[in-house]
Design a protein that fits this description.
With about 425 residues, the protein is an alpha/beta fold. The chain is about 45% helix and about 15% strand. Bound molecules: D-serine. The site of D-serine has 4 residues, from loops.
């Protein structure tokens, strides 16, 4: 194997083969690849990115510093990365139908941090859904920057058992809360909320109390892009998202707006406010992802994600599981395990299902009496299984496997039998290339 001698004396194999350069890292990646291939990914926030998206991430763009924005950088040599970032911004604008986009946030939490930094002052009040009702850490959790440096007030879900919108956003109570506390910003969009978000209704409340409306569409971005969930535009003043969930791109974040003044503040908040050099290789992969999401095939994919979620939800309910809010409108559902077995916890369910090849996450449910590391709920989503080509009949099969494993309380023989069947299904539906 020819070696390149670096001036430092360090040597590196002159090969593209990671296996030869670093067999230890290569071997761990192979194991992860095999894990992903042979298990059903039911975590609602995960997906399988295409080879094209992954290829863009593994390129020389990782070498480039490009603080600033296209045509206004603090480093030389940016002509090609300028092209990459321009392309990403242009495609994102087309995909979401908005005027301004910042594609530099390293993650969804970074995107949210930038919005707070741009539009609020420390100590300002904002309204959001609390984490335990389906919100996110960066929506005011007390240990997060959003809860430490700002003042969250939380609007509730509806708990009237006779209401058709039980466990959905209680807009009357939200309005009362906002009129009482006059938050500077209202944040909608969630991590564990199975229902359609009524952005127009939130905007009415925001206008009534003079607040900015921020939508965090990290979970539903792919559905929004494909028209399977109403758009946060034109109702929201500012919209944040991740690019790796239903949107099926690289791990990363993004901020969008139609307001030129907000756009200027956001750009300053991202850089130099909270970040330094943008991850140009990831921005290239975002551009690839947006290009993919603009294709007609992505609409078909997103529709199937929703159909699969409905099928999985219906099959679980038939087996006696209660779903928070009674079902799903999007890609995810929250299973209240207690209705099936009052002693069943989310932690046990997650562990037993993983042994059987179905990857999920324990999740608190509204008013959960159990702590976050135990929980009474399980969050399930269909973005990843839909990417590998599964459809409604497979969802009924998955619900059956879930029930077999949970009803047996993780019995070794049942788990082994289901694991085998899961592996066979995974072999028939390999990960996309
Ligand atoms: N961790 C993500 C999720 O699973 O929803 C949110 O950041």
């Amino acid at each position: 194997m020819p070696k390149t001698i670096y001036p430092t004396g360090q040597t590196a194999a002159k090969t593209d083969s990671l296996q030869e350069c670093d067999p230890q890292v290569w071997s761990l990646i192979q194991s992860e690849q095999q894990r992903q291939h042979s298990t059903l990914e039911l975590i609602a926030s995960e997906n399988h990115a295409s080879s094209a998206v992954m290829a863009a991430m593994g390129t020389c763009l990782t070498n480039k510093y490009a603080e600033g924005y296209p045509a206004a950088r603090y480093y030389g040599g940016c002509q090609f990365v300028d092209g990459v970032e321009d392309l990403a911004r242009q495609r994102a604008k087309e995909l979401f139908g908005c005027q301004f986009v910042n594609v530099q946030p390293h993650s969804g939490a970074q995107a949210n941090t930038a919005v707070f930094f741009a539009l609020l002052e420390p100590g300002d009040t904002f309204a959001s859904l609390v984490l335990s009702d389906g919100g996110h850490l960066s929506h005011g959790m007390k240990l997060n920057f959003s809860g430490r440096y700002f003042k969250p007030v939380h609007y509730p879900l509806r708990y009237d058992l006779t209401a058709t919108d039980y466990e959905q956003i209680d807009f009357d109570a939200t309005r009362r809360l906002c009129l009482e506390h006059r938050p500077k910003m209202i944040l909608c969009g969630y991590s564990a909320y199975p229902r359609t978000i009524d952005f127009a209704r939130f905007r009415q409340i925001a206008d009534e109390c003079g607040a900015i409306l921020m939508a965090d569409i990290a979970h539903i971005a792919g559905l929004v892009a494909a028209g399977e969930h109403p758009s946060p535009f034109p109702h929201s003043h500012v919209v944040t998202t991740t690019t790796h969930k239903t949107l099926r791109g690289p791990r990363g974040g993004m901020i969008m707006t139609d307001d030129p003044e907000i756009a200027k503040k956001i750009d300053k908040a991202v850089f130099p406010g909270i970040q330094g050099g943008p991850l140009m290789h990831v921005i290239a992969a975002k551009a690839v992802c947006f290009g993919e999401a603009l294709q007609p095939a992505f609409k078909v994919y997103a529709r199937q994600v929703v159909h699969n979620a409905k099928a999985l939800a219906a099959a679980l309910m038939t087996k006696g599981y209660r779903l928070v809010s009674g079902g799903t409108d999007n890609h995810l559902m929250l299973v209240d395990l207690r209705r099936r077995d009052e002693n069943l916890t989310g932690a046990d369910a997650e562990k037993w299902l993983e042994a059987a090849g179905m990857i999920t996450n324990k999740n608190g449910i509204p008013n959960d009496p159990r702590p976050p590391r135990v929980t009474s709920g399980l969050r399930l989503g269909t973005p990843a299984t839909t990417t590998r080509g599964l459809t409604e009949p497979h969802m009924a099969q998955i619900a059956d496997w879930i029930d077999q494993v949970l009803a047996s309380r993780g019995d070794e023989h049942v788990v082994k039998k289901v694991r085998q069947q899961v592996a066979e299904l995974c072999d028939r539906f390999p990960l996309p290339h």
